[in-house]
Amino acid sequence: MRPARRxxxxxxxxxxxxxxxxxxxxxxxxxxxxxxxxxxxxxxxAILYGSCARGTQRPxxxxxxxxxxxxxxxxDQDTLLDISLECSRRTGxxxxxxxxxxxxxxxxxxxxxxxxxxxxxxxxxxxxxxxxMLDFDANMLPLVRMIxxxxxxxxxAGR
Length: 159
Prior knowledge:
- This protein is α+β, with helices and mostly antiparallel strands.
- The protein has helices spanning 27-37, 51-54, 77-91, 105-114, 123-139, 141-157; strands spanning 45-49, 63-68, 95-99, 116-120.
- A four-stranded mixed sheet has the order 3-2-1-4, with helices on both faces.
- Strand 2 (63-68), helix 3 and strand 3 form a beta-alpha-beta unit.
- Helix 1 (27-37) runs antiparallel to helix 3 and helix 4 (105-114) packs across helix 5 (123-139).
- It is globular, with a radius of gyration of 19 Å.
């Protein structure tokens, strides 16, 4: 039996990962995407999400990538297109980009909680996005759940 691990945040493994899904990422895909996003100095945060982040992608799967230059300022559409085309060229896959400055609600929560960070130049940007996500969880998610429950009950009642 293995001895219990102390909860110090340290590990005896030499290359431990901080997020469980990181072990499932295709390494050439990760390197290709990271090499592209690192060339854009205005990018502060790049997060891979979806099937490629979970390691469940199929040969025809696209790549889902969320980017931020700040938590509030939307990115220029031409820059997004350039990044998308370069990522597609490097990976051989269609790449779907989302601007995190425009992300809200459950989508933002999905990206921040299940995505894999490829680039993080300014931790403040990520922190502000997490605060926005937590605000949604505290203030809007209960309302969303109530509306869904009400709609489900009406549907089941045939109204």
